[in-house]
Each structure stands twice: as C-alpha cells, then as structure tokens.
Queue: 2 jobs
Job 1
Amino acid sequence: MKLAEPDAKMLQEVGALAEVRGRSLWADARARFLRNKAALIGLVVLILICLFAAFGGLIAQYERDFVDFSLMGANAYQGSPSIETGHYFGVDIDGRDLYARTVQGTRISLLVGIVGALVAVLVGTLYGATAGYIGGRVDNIMMRTVDVLMSIPFMFVLILMLVIFGRSILMLFIGIGLISWLDMARIARGQTLTIKNKEFVEAAVATGVKPLKIILRHVVPNLLGIVIVYATLLVPQMIIFESFISYLGLGVQEPNTSLGALMSLGTKQMNNGTLWMLFYPLFFFLITLFAFFFVGDGLRDALDPKDR
Amino acid sequence: MFAYIVRRLAIAIPTILILVVISFLLMYSAPGGPFNSERPLPAEVMANLEAKYGLDQPMWRQMVSYVWGVVTQFDFGPSFQYTDRTVNDVIAQGFPVTLTYGLWSAIVAMVVGVSLGVSAAVRQNSVLDYLAVGITIGAQALPNFVMAPILVLIFTLWLGWLPGGGWNGGQWEYVIMPVIALSTSYMASIARITRSSMLEVLNSNFIRTAQAKGLPMRRVVLRHALKPALLPVLSYLGPAMVGMITGSVVVDIIFSTGGIGQFFVNSAFNRDYAVIMGITLLVGVLTISFNLIVDILYAWIDPKIRY
C-alpha cells in the first residue's frame, strides 16, 4: 500500500506523456529549423524584404519613372540621399528617385528568383520523378537528354536568345526556366530511385493504382523535403544569374529595373562620387541573397539531418 | 573502364550535334540578317553578299555545309563582321587570353578554396571557421561585375599599383585583377564544398581509428581525410573549370582583356552568326570534355563508382 502514491504519480506521468501528440516528420523539421538562429534571422530578414518589395512603394515620394530634369546629370552634388527632399536613397544619373527604383528592382529580382525556382520545382520534380519511377530505357533516354542540355553553354545561348528574340522579361523567364530545372530533375530522380522500392509504393502498385497517380500521390510528396531545400538554394542562384544578364544590358528593360540593373548603373557611375547608386541596391541584393542562403542551409539541416 | 570512356565519347558526339542544331536554328530564326544596317544596301549588293556567304541557300543546306566544314576541315567559316578575318582567326586571338587567365583562376580558386575549406573544417566552430564561412558566403553573393570595379577603384585609382584594364600580352600586372574577379566566387563554392565534406569525413570511423593510433592531427588530415573529402570537390570542378576557362563574359568586358567573351557579346549584338556559332561550339566542346575528364578521374579515384 505504501507504493500506491508513487505508483499513482507515475501512472499520471505516463498518462501525461501519452497525451503528448505524435511528432510528425514536418513537426520535427520545424522544431529543428526554429532552433537554428541563423536560419531564423534569415527568415525574418526575408519577410522584411518581401514587405519592402510589396509595400515599400507606398512611402516613396516620387514615381519610379519620374525624371527630375533639374537633377539630371547633377545628382552628384544635388541628388544625395536625404529625408527632406523625399529622395531617401538619392537620385540616379537621370534624375530618377533611387528609392522607388530600388523597391521595384527588389520586386523584380525576387520575382525572377522565385519564378526560376518554381519552374524548377514543377518541371524538374515531375520530370525526375517520372524518369526515376518508370526506369529502364525511358529513364535512360530522359536523363541523357538532361545530360545533353546541361553541357550546352547556357549563358551563351541565353545571350543569343535575348539578342535574337528581343529583350523582354518574358524571354528572361523562359531562358531562366530552361536552365533551372535540370539540376532539380537529377536530384528528384536520385531520390525517387530510393523511394520506389519502399513498401508503400509496392502496396499502391499491388492495389492497382495507376503509375501517374503513384508518382503524384506517393512519390512526389516524399520528394518535397529535398525539393524545397534545393528550391530555396536555387532562388539566389537565379537572382545572381539575372544580375549578370542585366549587367550586359539584356535583362529587364527600362522603365522597369532590377537590382542587377541598378547595381550595374551604380558601378558605371562610381567615379562620379555617386556611391549611393551602387550601395543601396547592393545592400538589398546582398541581404536578399544572404537571407536565402541562411534559410536554405537551415532548411537543409532541418529536413535532411546529418551530423555536420 | 575503357568501355566506359568509349560510351561517354559516344554520347558526346550527338550532344555536340544537338548543340550545333540548336544554335543554328536560333540564329536562323532571328529577324534581320548580318547585313541589315541603318542604310539599306542596294538589292544587288545584298544578293551578292548573301551569295558569297551562302545565306541564299535553304536552311538545311547551310547547316549541312557548316557542319561539314567544321568536321572535315576544322573551318568555322568567315566572320560576317570582320571581313578580313575568319572565325578561326577570331578564336585564335581571343582564346589564348581567356585560357591564360582562366587557368590561373582555376588554380587560385582550387588552392585557396581547398585550404580555406580544410582549415575551417579542422577547427570547426572556431573564429577561423566563422571567418571562413563569412568570407565564402560574401564572396558567393557579391557579383563580379560589382567586385571588379571596386578592385579597379582601389588598386588602380587609389593605390595606382595595377593597370585598370587591357591585356598587354599577358604581363602579370594585367592578369591579377581579372583572375581575382573571376576566381572569387568559384573559390567560395570550393571552400564551402570542401568544408562540409571534410566535416563529414572527419566524423567517420576510420579517422577516429587513425587518431586513436596516435597519429598527429596534421597527418590524419593530409593523409587520411583529404582524399575522400575532395571527391565532391572534384565533381564540382568540371563545370567550374569550364566556367573559368571560357572566361566570364563580364570580366572580359570590364577589363577589356580581349578574350572570347568580349567577341561573343560583340558578335551577338552585330548578328555575326559565324563567330557566335564558333564560340558556342568551342564552349560546348570544352564543357563536354571537362565533364568527361572529371567523370573519368572520379571513376578512377573512387572505387565505389560503378561505370
């Protein structure tokens, strides 16, 4: 009878433990991610950048394509950043408000990165999963195609496409979409090869589920972890790629702009002493990339834990 | 092994053909030809010019004769823009430049990247490690078209140590800044890959054994850990080498080094089809060859690879 009380207590504890809900893979991953300070800071910064891109235009005092002729060419001594004039980030060489242009540039750069990553996720995952699941000769042909496409110098082909078909943001998206899915297809295929021999896929096959449905319902969801990680790491790559294209003058065209285009203008005016033209866009470019790097690394550690 | 190499070569040939066809179709479908200018030429002159360069032939004819010329005589045809030169001349002028600073960049990126990565991994979570990680992340994010003008600003305008551009036959003063601008981001990637794979290797059992035997850390790292840790770096090296040797278009433009990147962009704007094709093919062949070399090296070094 002496044991009754501790027993009861113990039982209570066990009961309390039983109330704890089972931990899913995603809940585990979320917990790991939230414990990672660098990733968390990256996420916060990323949200702030998105807010800046979405709503930053509301506090701009000028339209992004408004040319102040009195400041044109005189921005070095009259167009420096100041709160009073409303040009928070100063004025560029053509007398346009750099703040409004930076907001828009951030928006376009983010858009380019995210569209590139989305294409990669949609096309690459489905392609890779299909190749891996079907296997055999189909797999061979599909992956050899990827190999062939990968050995094409895409920077050169993209320059060619933009020169030939005209410079438009659509063309840029097409060009970036063409490259971005290749790596993803390889990764998805590799992962599919390990998934397709698991019992749950076998069970689906045994119950007569059609191959397409198996790929969509059973294979792809299990690829999501690794796909999300690589998509996050792909976004900064796409943003960097776009900035190169913009540097060559082939990217986003005026009056639209991107961070790459702004930085390129900034470097060309560096000798005039208008360093703000370089450093404000560069600042947003760098923190955007850093945020994506850290979030991507954090996601990798969270979803694909190895003791590193 | 031999069969593997043959098989890979067999894949390389259709790849190059596809590359030819794609770039040819792209250029063929372009509105406007190489001789369209502000002031339209008389019709007869135009016809004569087109006949001279074979542009009046049907498309497949042009393509076949082009491929034939390349395969049998290694002849990439005449340049449309530089009338007195062939594409071979243009490439012969530009490629050595690109190759010189490309190879130096590759060496710098590898040596600095691997040593940075290894020393960061060996002292994980030390100040040195954080510093290395910080440098590599920064170097990966900073585009070289921003870094190059800053280098020029510092070393040319402020310090006056180095010339701000040009090539001058590849004197070392002229090579330094292009190499720094080109190699930095590759260096950063190599350092990151080396660091993470080194960390993985250092946590494995055979390293623990080596340490338990009482080997000094230096020997453990250099003798036992380095080789397996470099395998992922090796597979990154293929595309990276191509990226560096074909030179960055951007570096060529900023430093006016006169490499093939500069010719490519000029030709693209001038619709100089022949030069564009020649350079695209050159880069494609280089890409394929480097990937092949890396894959063979990989298969040779890592006995676990099935080929």
Note: The radius of gyration of chain A is 26 Å.
Job 2
Amino acid sequence: MCRSVILWVLLCSSVAAHEMTPTYPKWQTSMIDGVHKTTMEMFNKRQDVKWYEIGVFDKEWKAIPFVTSYKVIQLDYLNHVKFDVYITSNNKDKAEYICSLSKLRGNNNNKPMIASKICSRFK
Amino acid sequence: MNKLITIALMIGFTSVYAGTNINGTVESRCTVNTDTSGYYGNPNAYTLTTLPASAGQVPVIRIDTSLANAYKAQISYPTSFSSSPSLGDTVVWTGTVAVDQTSSSDMSGYQAASTTADGGAMRIYPLSIAGATWFSVASVATYGGGQQKAFPGGSYTAVVIAECVAQ
C-alpha cells in the first residue's frame, strides 16, 4: 500500500522528464558490410525541451564517429522516438557510451536551466 | 481402439499446450526529472544566487532508477553563463550539490558515498538502490574577481547538468 502511494505520488509529481532505453544496448550487424547498428528509444516529458543531441563516446569520453538520421533529434513533449545508431566495425569495440543530451534554448528570466543527459553503456 | 489412440493423442497434445508461460523482464531505466527549474536572486549588485534568502530558487532534480546499481547520477553546478551580457571581468562560481530527499531511507548514505569531479563542480552518486532521489543544486556567481564589481545589467542564464550514466 505504502509503495503504491509512493509510486502514485512519483507519477503525479513527474513535471518534466527525459528517459532513454535500453540501459545496456548491443551492437547488431546491419545490412551494410562493416557497419553495426543499435536501436535506442527516447521519451520526452520535458515541456521546455524539443531537441536532444545524440553522442557516442569511448571510455575516456572522447567522441566516436557514428551516423543517425539526425544527430539532433526533434522530440515533442510526451512523444517517443526510436532511432538507429550506426557505427563502423573498427569503432564498435571502442564505443562505451551512447548519450542523449537535452538542448536548451536561452531565456530571459535569469534562470539556471537544467540540462538532462542520459547515457547507456555497451557492456 | 483407434478412438482410444486418438483420445490419448489429444490428451497428450492438450497437456503440451496446457502450460502457457507468461514471460516478463524487468528492464533497468533511468529518468531525469526537472522538478524545480530554479532561478537567481540578485541580493546585491555583484552577486547572483539561487539561495531563497536572497530571493532565488534552488533547482531540484529528481532521478528515478528502476534497478539498483545500474546507473550513477552526475550532477554539476554551473561554472559559466550560457548567456549573459558581455562581461569584462572575472566571475567566481561556487555551488553545492546535495541529496534533498529520497524515496527510501536506505538511500540515506548517498551523500556520504558521493565523490566529486571537474574541480568539485560535479558530484557523482552511485545509485545503489532502486527508487527516486531528489538533488538540490545551489549556485552563486560573484562578479569582479573578489573586487565586488557590479554585474552589467541584462539577462543571465546558467545551466545545471543532470546526468544519468549507466554503470
């Protein structure tokens, strides 16, 4: 009962949220020789954010080249998106993290805005 | 005889199909929630602060995880403005990141178990228990490099970064 109440409170108080799955994606072979792909899913419950930037990084957080339909994805409020990320086979084992970062617009209210970033990990 | 064989076969098949499995998996998931966006108060000409005593508001971020030990939270207070008027002098940044609330008392050790990075601006919390954790991020910007110079008039924006990184 107590857990249900806590869950209900959490769901009701979710003002703005950013979510990306899976936590531990896997590379799969693609239709192109020497290229691997993985599929990610993102959910935008942030009314103040419409754009998310995708990045692939190694263990040292250095950027690794990759291809998606759009590196900055438009994702409207309360929408889901599934997107494929492609990487060359020689970079496949170097890739450690795949991240989505909210892109913020400037405003005029002296506000410290909150950028949200979620990173999944290749294990 | 044939009928018996048929019935036996039917029973055999029935028993094969009678046990229907319901499969499910629990997937780890992290959600970054911006509960309170926060804003700066301007208690004097040379200070911008999120402290409520100075008419500011401390931003609060909630991070939810569905599985223990799957993610770590990395929260950073700002060390520069993302937009501001042209500034000719130094801005000194200070801040703190703290656990504000937790959904379970078992998470009470999160602050003590946290570590810092990026010169102290980023605090890293291993999320060892499933549930929700609220983090508050206080930020103070002082202009003039200790000389207490007045900030130029205009709009100032700084960004708090809340990261959820798979372990």
Note: The CA atoms of residues 132 and 159 of chain B lie 22 Å apart.
